[in-house]
Amino acid sequence: MESFIKQLTEKYQHQSTQLLMILREVQAQYFHVPSQAIDLLVTQLDVPKTQILGVIEFYSFLSATPRGRYDIYISDSITDHMLGKKAVADYLCEKLHTPLGTVRADGLVSIANSSCTGLCDQGPAILVNGHAVGRLNKARIDEIAALIQQKTPVTEWPTSLLQVDDNVQKSGLLLDSHLEKGAAIEAAWQRGLEQTLHEVEKAGLRGRGGAGYTTAWKWHLCYEGYEEDSFCDISVHKQPQRYVVCNADEGEPGTFKDRILLNSYAHELIEGMTLCASIIKSNQGFIYLRGEYLHLYSKLNAVIAERRAAGLLGANILGKNFDFDVEVRLGLGAYICGEESALIESLEGKMGVPRNRPPYPVTSGYLNKPTVVNNVETFVAAAHIGLHGGDWFAAHGTEKSKGTKILSISGDCARPGIYEYPFGTTIKTILEDCGAEDVLGIQVGGPSGTFISNKEFDRKIAFEDLATGGSFIIFNSSRDIFEIVRNFTHFFAHESCGFCTPCRVGTSLMKNQYDKICTGHGSTGDVRELQEIAKLVKSTSHCGLGQTAAQPILTTLERYPELYNAKLKQISFEPGFDLDGSLAIARKLTGRDDSNAHLAQVEEE
Amino acid sequence: MTGTKHITIDGQTVPFEEGQTIMEAAAAAGVYIPHLCHHPEFTPHGSCKLCTVKVNGRSASSCTFPAAEGQEVLNNSDELNADRKRLTQMLFVEGNHFCPSCEKSGNCQLQAVGYHLNMLDNHYPHFFALRDVDASHPDVLVDRNRCIFCSLCVRASHQEGKDVFGIVGRGINKHLAVNSESGKLADSDLSVDDRAAHICPTGAILVRGTAFKVPIGQRLYDHHDIDEVSLGASHE
Asked: Which of A303, A412, A446, A508 has the maximal Cβ count within 10 Å?
């Protein structure tokens, strides 16, 4: 092990910022991170042991205890459930003789649940040693079980299993065509870099992750700094080091549009990053790729290599005396790392805990240097604007939301997949295009967005109406609102980083409270309590995760009060636990199951 | 710099210096904002959220949020204090806090904040978390049942160049870890004279042999409200 760790740390030049990449390889080699490896890394990387322990426990895809040689994660997103996840998971577990959440005795297989893996249009999906396999059914599970039994490495599995389709159903401004490589950079230099920043401003481009910060302003601030930022160290801005970071950690359940951009539009993405770098004077960029998209890692690196060879990355790009390069770093399963400051912490080899702001990443980001963090789609759009100019882009969309938005459509519709629409498109149009009928409601923007009912189909996709990072999950009237909200509420409790009190404790309280109501043990007081916790978590949490974790509860409580009321017991108070259920052990011990061994849980008249 | 800059807190005009947080400006002016993870001598952490105030109508952690000219800050309102009470109750049910049997009772800031906010019960269902006690060290005891993840010990030890403590893990499974090969405190670099051994606001890190030197009933918060103690300390 010593020589393995030594080679590994040498490969990563003993950089503690590479801790996640290093631990990923240790995990792949030993199926866990052995304590001996931790001690070796403490010495080799010169980091406190608590940092390494913290990272191992923080990220879902690392483990301190051995996982199976075939380590399987089943996507537990609501979209997978709608496609039959439960039955598929049961069959998989049975076929591999491994109950969910366990490691098989011979160490060959382990199976666990995972948050959304981004294959919502082709689920139910699993990850096997990090590789995505979608469209699971009995036949495919039989095939997988046979491959595992023969101990065939996943990389040698047939492409029919590992194939992930783009599934573009409707293209627009960005997806219609590919840019000629280098064309946007060339155009930007010809126009002048300052003028190009004006074009990005004129385009009205706003961040595509959902929050919608004005992109040109972000780039400007990164270069210039805040004029009156009392917390910003002016000397920092005199230092030339700045970073460009692409947030490719789309973890919002139901979102998969970046998967397509990274797979088939990587040149546009990196061109956009290069454009940004030339404007803010950066020489280093990173793509923070979510661990679930391991299947895109080598593809991205191939694109980067191709661009280096073509003089579009590296030293003296296109002879403009401008140096810039891009490195891909993988995440390891943590939704919170989609939050930009948590992402930066993760890039630095730490737990993904969001930072206090101010200072914002534009003044103090990666390694406390000014850093632009933008969504994949934002950079792709920026590349197009770099070539075609701001007016071309601003001619589409609405007054406050220019251009187009790429949506990941999944759930109950005939044609799930990727749809690109000008901002301002109504929900009605979208539903018609994807073939959705008998719709109960739609989760726009994923669990952290808004659940809209079938009375709101005239609303529009726009920052001023329904803002979205791209997730669009459709539910028909056969679906149970409670199961949907329950899935989302469990998701947030699972993904809370635990930094602040309201989110750490509050998301677990909401989860338990919601379960109580779902299982028919809720009273009117319980709904009131749920609402109170939800509001507190929303108003006092540290970052976007906590501030939106209560959205599924609050938006459905507002729209479907009658459904909640129908779910409640008609008594004034219900205890926090199932009284009769708690007696199950006593019944088992005494071998009794007669009526006197049960408690009636309804008030006697 | 010309003239003094001001914010208002609950209508009271409070001066501040460039670079001060709202918490710092408030403390200097004798205004108490409830807090647990904040300590004037360490880098603000902003995790307990007890110091949440409204700044021009928006929620912000006063310990990390910079004061700026003209801010209207709402602090001592019924609504904010009700939220603070709930957050304190969350800390109580998440861990295992049994004040009557705790050595720190009367000197505990968590308990004192509970008093201050008129917290009469735990309100939420208990989590009954299973947490470890580390009694390996001859001079210092760690009882994780009482840890509220304020990270003051982490910050203090880091400042001392030792990094004895770290908060590790995710979400509700977070826990206090010790930086030593065995993970035990005895094998760490901690010494009883370290600031980190004395900084804990609750009874999670205790110096042995001192627990009952002062009888219960004669302790700090048995006689003084935490607002008075806290402001006294920042004026020293």
From this structure: A446
For position A601, what pLDDT does the model report? 52
Taking only residues 183 to 222 of chain B, the set having a beta carbon closer than 8 angstroms to any beta carbon of chain A reads none
Query: Which chain A residue shows the shortest CA-CA distance from B85?
Result: A536
Q: How far apart are CA A325 and CA A312, in angstroms?
A: 9
Give bridge partners of residue A324 from the DSSP assignment.
Answer: A314
Asked if residue B113 has pLDDT above 80, the reply is: yes
Does the structure show a pLDDT above 80 at B2? no
- Predicted confidence at residue B223, as pLDDT, reads 94
Q: Does B165 touch chain A (CB under 8 A)?
A: yes
Give the CATH number of domain A482-567. 1.20.1440.230
Percent of chain A scored above 70 by pLDDT? 95
Asked whether the beta carbons of A123 and A135 are under 8 A apart, the reply is: yes
B34 to chain A, any CB pair closer than 8 A? The answer is no
The answer to whether residue B229 neighbours chain A at the CB level (below 8 Å) is no
Residue A503 identity (one-letter amino acid): C
pLDDT digits 0-9 by tens, A552-577: 999 999 999 999 988 887 666 666 66
- Which pLDDT belongs to residue A604? 44
Q: Nearest to residue A123, comparing CAs of A109, A108, A137, A110?
A: A137
User: Taking the domains of chain A in order of start, what are their residue ranges?
Assistant: 2-58, 70-165, 170-394, 404-479, 482-567
- Which fold would CATH assign to domain A170-394? Rossmann fold (3.40.50)
What is the C-alpha separation between A141 and A111, in angstroms, rounded?
Answer: 13
Question: Residue B171: which of A53, A493, A542 has the nearest Cβ?
Answer: A493
Decide whether A170-394 matches A482-567 in CATH topology: no
What domains can you pick out in chain B, each with its CATH number? 5-76 (3.10.20.740), 98-225 (3.30.70.20)
Tell if the CB–CB gap between B163 and A48 is shorter than 8 Å: yes
Mutate to test the interface with A, among B49, B61, B187 (most CBs of A within 10 A): B49
What sections of A109-244 are H helices per DSSP?
A: 138-149, 159-162, 183-191, 193-203, 215-224, 234-238
The pLDDT value recorded for residue A573 is: 65
Q: Is A226 helix (H, G, I), strand (E, B) or coil?
A: coil
From residue B160, alpha-carbon distances to A173, A248, B190 in Å are 56, 38, 10
A582: which 2 tokens? 């708690």
Residue B200 makes CB contacts below 8 A (sequence gap 6+) with B152, B153, B206
Judged by CB atoms closer than 8 Å, whether chains meet at B177 and A53 is answered as: yes
Please state whether beta strands A168-170 and A131-133 pair in parallel, antiparallel, or not at all (unpaired).
unpaired
Using pLDDT thresholds of 50, 70 and 90, give the confidence band for residue B140.
Answer: very high
The yes-or-no verdict on residue A232 having pLDDT over 60 is no
Q: Which CATH architecture has domain A70-165?
A: 3-Layer(aba) Sandwich (3.40)
Tokens of residue B42, six digits: 């360490």
β-pairing, B72-74 vs B5-9, is: parallel
**B174–A contact, CB cutoff 8 A:** yes
Taking only the tens place, the pLDDT of each residue in A116-130 is: 999 999 999 999 999
The b/e string for A368-384 (b: 16+ C-beta within 10 A; e otherwise) is ebbbbbbbbbbbbbbbb
Contact A49, B162 (CB under 8 A): no
What number is the ipTM of this complex? Answer: 0.96
